């Protein structure tokens, strides 16, 4: 199965939506709303029930419209299962050298997680496509800006505590993308299957990003 990742899609709206513990049924309802709203990149965490089935289903049905990847990939076993399911990019909360080198060898984008400047530098040196700064909620946009002072060549993806109110502040601080979880997939909305409300939320994110781009011009 192809693992082709589209940077054109990714860069349209550099938000990675993190789906954790979301059922296949709900994932298949969310995906068309997600791409119709202009969002482009979805991560299914490997510690979710049925993660491989969800990844395979989303890649099969929406792989031409969305980048579908696997998150919380901490071991080589999880990496193998994720790639076999068709994941087109890999995200981890940690730095696992073997996972990173395997992705690099197979030309699969990999975003390992790091916290300190030393961890970030190590992950990048191992060949990380981008480095997931996690958990960003305890650090704030200022941390991203400070780290990028001496490490301006490294692409960062802060994740954890990112929401509608602050995600553009991280981008303005120099982050290349952000990872957003529960704020994109509110449990109450999924429980009620209020897909119109979910569409409204996604429109707020894409609208906010457009406004951010307009202010940069």
Give a written overview of the molecule.
The protein is an alpha/beta fold and 217 residues long. The chain has a single domain, classed as Alpha-Beta Barrel (TIM Barrel). The strands form three sheets. It has a four-stranded parallel β-sheet with strand order 3-2-1-9. The protein has a three-stranded parallel β-sheet with strand order 6-7-8, covered by helices on one side. A two-stranded parallel ribbon has the order 4-5. The mean pLDDT is 96.
What's the topology here?
Blueprint: H1 7-12, E1 15-19, H2 24-36, E2 41-45, H3 51-62, E3 67-71, H4 76-85, E4 90-91, H5 97-105, E5 110-111, E6 113-114, H6 117-125, E7 131-133, H7 141-147, E8 156-158, H8 167-172, E9 178-180, H9 187-192, H10 195-216
Parallel strand pairs: 1-2, 1-9, 2-3, 4-5, 6-7, 7-8
Helix pairs in contact: 2-3, 2-10, 3-4
- Tally of helical runs: 10
Strand order, largest beta sheet: 3-2-1-9
Return the CATH topology.
TIM Barrel
The average pLDDT value, as a whole number, equals 96
Number of discrete domains: 1
Which regions have little confidence, pLDDT < 50, spanning 5+ residues? none
Shape summary = globular
What's the name of the CATH homologous superfamily? Aldolase class I
Q: Mind describing the biggest β-sheet?
A: 4 strands, parallel
* CATH class bucket: Alpha Beta
Please count the beta strands (DSSP E, at least 2 residues each).
9
SSE string, helix = H, strand = E? HEHEHEHEHEEHEHEHEHH
CA(first)-CA(last) distance? 40 Å
- Based on CA atoms alone, the radius of gyration comes out at 16 Å
Q: Tell me the fraction of residues in β-strands, as a range.
A: 5-15%
- The helix content is 40-55%
* CATH architecture annotation: Alpha-Beta Barrel
Structural class: alpha/beta
């Amino acid at each position: 199965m192809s693992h082709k990742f589209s940077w054109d899609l990714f860069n349209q709206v550099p938000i990675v939506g993190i789906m954790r513990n979301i059922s296949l049924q709900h994932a298949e309802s969310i995906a068309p709303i997600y791409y119709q709203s202009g969002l482009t990149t979805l991560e299914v965490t490997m510690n979710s029930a049925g993660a491989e089935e969800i990844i395979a289903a989303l890649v099969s049905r929406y792989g031409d419209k969305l980048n579908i990847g696997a998150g919380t990939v901490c071991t080589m076993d999880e990496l193998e299962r994720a790639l076999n399911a068709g994941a087109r990019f890999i995200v981890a909360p940690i730095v696992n050298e073997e996972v990173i080198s395997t992705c690099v060898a197979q030309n699969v984008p990999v975003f390992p997680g790091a916290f300190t400047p030393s961890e970030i530098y190590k992950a990048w040196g191992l060949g990380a496509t981008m480095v997931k700064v996690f958990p960003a909620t305890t650090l704030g946009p200022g941390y991203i800006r400070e780290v990028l002072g001496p490490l301006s060549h490294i692409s960062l993806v802060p994740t954890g505590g990112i929401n509608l109110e602050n995600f553009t502040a991280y981008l303005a601080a120099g982050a290349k993308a952000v990872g957003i979880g529960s704020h994109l997939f509110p449990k109450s909305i999924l429980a009620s299957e209020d897909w119109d409300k979910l569409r409204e939320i996604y429109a707020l994110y894409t609208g906010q990003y457009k406004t951010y781009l307009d202010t940069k011009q």
